[in-house]
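Hi all, long-time lurker, first post. I run a small reading group and we've been trying to get comfortable going from sequence to structure in the token notation. Rather than ask abstract questions, I figured I'd post a concrete chain and ask someone more experienced to write out its structure so we can walk through it together at our next meeting. Sequence below, copied exactly:
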Amino acid sequence: MRNMFADAPRTSLTAIYWAFLLYLLLPLTLMMAMSFKDANFVAFPIGDWTLDWYAKVMQDKQFLEACLYSVMIAAASTLAATTLGTWIAMLIVAEGIKGQVIIFALACLPAVVPGMISAISLRIFISTIDMPTGTAAIILGHTVHAVPFVVVMALTRLRSMPGNLVDAARDLGADSIVAFFRVTLPYLGPALVGGMIFCVLLSIDDFVRTFFLGGYRPTLPMLIFAKVQGGMSPEINAMATLVLVVTAAVGLYAEYMTRRARTR
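-- Answer (accepted) --
Happy to help. Here is the structure in token form:
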């Protein structure tokens, strides 16, 4: 009897977990199922199944251009965010630097500010410096949003790094730059790879900042949003399914790299 009452909280938590998982996966499953519907509208029952919508999406020039544009922006913002995030993490752990807590708080601030507020403030900022909306403004916005994630991952890795590694490199004649590229950067490698993958995912999925900072050339989220305005169709579901599958695969790989880095 006592064991029954002791197992009750665990059973309740397990039930809540599976209910929450069902709540997350059921809409995604329905969306993916509708992408195979052999009709021009989204509704139940599905009836006949087809792959024609995926063939149409893969031949859609506008969709392919939006994908390439989103990938280009993601690559540029990831490179910038990784460089800035690594430098900030190194600054936080450096000896003799005052206000490290403040530096860390300011670096992580873009991650906790609501997306709408961040987008509006960035739009005001680019207007102040006379930067036109478009590719450069989008890269700036995505970089600001991605830097905190690189800082956290790099900082976690740096704090587990033995200090005698850099000291040994300097004893062998390496200066600070050589020690960074030969010792610190390789040690940070797994964390930076994981951080870069998260940056790519954040950039590709970012809609709010792109909406406020973008020009006439649409990114992938902007293209899907524009198509939704004309009404739902299985073609949109096929686009969303392709994006979901790719981002899920990349996200799982990032999680694998993060766990591998922690194990090492």
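A couple of things your group might point at:
The chain has a mean pLDDT of 83.
The chain has eleven helices and no strands.
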